[in-house]
Each structure stands twice: as C-alpha cells, then as structure tokens.
Amino acid sequence: MGIDNGRVRQMWHLLEPLHAVVYYAPQVVEEMGSLGYGTGERWPAYFALRAAPLGAPGCRPVTSAFYSFSPRTVAEHIPAAWEVASPSAVLTARTRGVDRAYRAFAGTLTDGPGVAEAAVLARRAAQAAPTWGRPLAAANAELPWPGEPHLVLWQAATVLREQRGDGHLAALLTAGLDPVEALVSFASVGAAPTDVFTSRGWSEDEWSAARTRLVARGLMEPDGTATEAGRALRAEVERRTDELAAAPWEALGTEDTARLADLLGPLWLEVLGSGMLPSVNTLGIGKI
User: What is the pTM of this model?
Assistant: First the structure.
C-alpha cells in the first residue's frame, strides 16, 4: 500500500514548524541584523533568507516564486536585499542562526540519536523529491549539505516544504486562482482571519476586485464566505497539493516515513512549546 494523503499532510505539519524557525527565531534575527538587515519587522530578512538560494534574483522571479505577495511588496525588499549582503552571506547567516536556534529550543535533543536518525531519513526523502517545475525546491536542493545532523534535518525540511509549496502553486494555477484570489478564497473557508493576509501587500481595491471575481464564478458569497463550490475547489487544491507532495514519502516507504514521524514528534513539541512561532497562521504550524 502506498502513502495516503493523510500521511503526506501529517509530514507537512510535522516538518513545517521545524523549517519555519528560520523566519521567527531570535537567533536568526540577530544574525541577519548583524549583516545590516532591518529587524523591526520580519520582511527584510524574510525576503533575503528565502530568496538567497536562487542567487540574487530580481523582483519578477521572486514575485513569481513567492506567488501570494503583491509585486509592490516584493519591490520594497528585492533587489535591495542584495545591496545589504550577498546571497552567500545570507545563506551562511541563516545556517548559523538555525544552528543556534535549534540548540536553544531543543537543548540536548539536538545532539541526540533521535535527531541523527531523523536527519538520515529526512535527507533520503528530500533527495527523492522531484524538483522539475519547482524553483525554490530545486534551489535549496542544490545547496551543499551541512555536516551536523540537526542542520541536515533542517535543510531536508526546507527542501521538502518548498517542494510542497511549489506544487501548491501548481494546484492553485490549475484551479484558476491568481495570487490575490488564492488568498481571498483561503480566507473565505476560514483558514485564517482576513487581516492575517494584509502583510502580502494587496490593496483593499485589489482584494475587493478578487472577491467580486470569485462571487461571479460562484465560489464566494457577497459577504466573503465560501459557497459550497468554493469550499469544494479549495478542498481540491489541498488534495492535489498532497498528491504532488507524495513522491518523497513514496520513495522513503511506509515504514520509514512512519518512523520519521515518530522521531520528529519530540522536536515538534519543543519548537511549538518555545513560543517563537505564531499561533495564528496559514502555514500549518501547530496542526496535526
């Protein structure tokens, strides 16, 4: 029997928080601040940290790869990010920051046998992840692997989450949802409060126009809630996203995937218990 979508989604929920520390951990913030990035808000560092594996991309490639951010928001940070520090310096800083963050929230677990075993399994899954049509996954998969197991685990988690994320964009495109429509429809099914999405930079007029388009398609009520058809479309997007993310777990196999899930549990609890990650989010953080 192959890997079912429930297991694929569980692995995402387990790995997403372990990856996401790079955007929230104070240790990473400190490392990025030392390079000269503003730390009063998370976005200057976020755009640099996430885009650096691509080299020094301009606005158009980043807007394409990140999808849900308005071009104006991207333009606030790209290409200015590369005037602060080179992509290679950013990658070095993120590795240092993640190392320090894991040692802070996981303590003795960091150098324990469970993390070492999890790193081997997660790396196998990441190296089996297809990267065609997946630019962020491919860019992270191209990076050299670190030596320490907890950093191997983090890099594997990063490749796997970007591989899933790139596939999610394909599912949104297939569903006919442009970037702002993707957010509006996601809010319409109660995935997160609307104000959570304001950081993506879309104007009230753009948000309203997307809502009007979705109402015209029969996917949303005028009050902003999803219709039955809208909920069905979002469910199909999630189902297709899971299917497109299944290959690494099919390659790892049912038993080893289950073993990895068990091994990730203690780390998952530690990172959630640290309080560094937001409780209200659209990333799957804190869900199982």
Answer: 0.96
